[in-house]
Design goal:
Helices cover about 70% and strands about 0% of the residues. Helix 1 packs antiparallel against helix 4.
């Protein structure tokens, strides 16, 4: 099976060049983080929302690639940007209400912020 996510080039920082690949690995990191976290029932909806928004970033980038027009592609990018910003919100809220690794949270928040900036830049250049 030759899948888009089977092979990829890494930058000097060890992150994929392709934004779709980078969003995919970010979603994997968020899922792994949540899977390794002890979640009390009262907080489960926060983690559910985090998974939805974090996985939505890459899903919309991939779907946008198959868009029927430039306008359609930009619309999917805009949704991905909104999801990246929403992800930062959930990560910050979890960071501030849970007793969890602040280092890992900082890393995830920083990556969500970088994804937001990259996607916003693509949108601006595409218009």
């Amino acid at each position: 099976m030759n899948d888009e996510f089977d092979s990829f080039e890494l930058s000097e920082e060890g992150k994929p060049y392709n934004i779709r690949h980078r969003a995919y690995f970010f979603a994997k990191d968020v899922i792994g983080f949540i899977g390794n976290s002890k979640v009390e029932k009262v907080y489960s909806s926060l983690f559910d929302q985090l998974i939805r928004s974090a996985t939505s970033i890459g899903a919309n980038l991939v779907e946008g690639k198959a868009g029927s027009s430039k306008k359609d592609w930009i619309n999917f990018l805009a949704i991905a940007l909104k999801s990246a910003n929403e992800t930062k919100y959930w990560l910050c809220l979890i960071r501030d209400t849970q007793d969890i690794s602040k280092d890992k949270m900082h890393e995830l928040i920083q990556e969500a912020d970088e994804l937001s900036k990259i996607i916003a830049s693509i949108i601006v250049k595409a218009k």
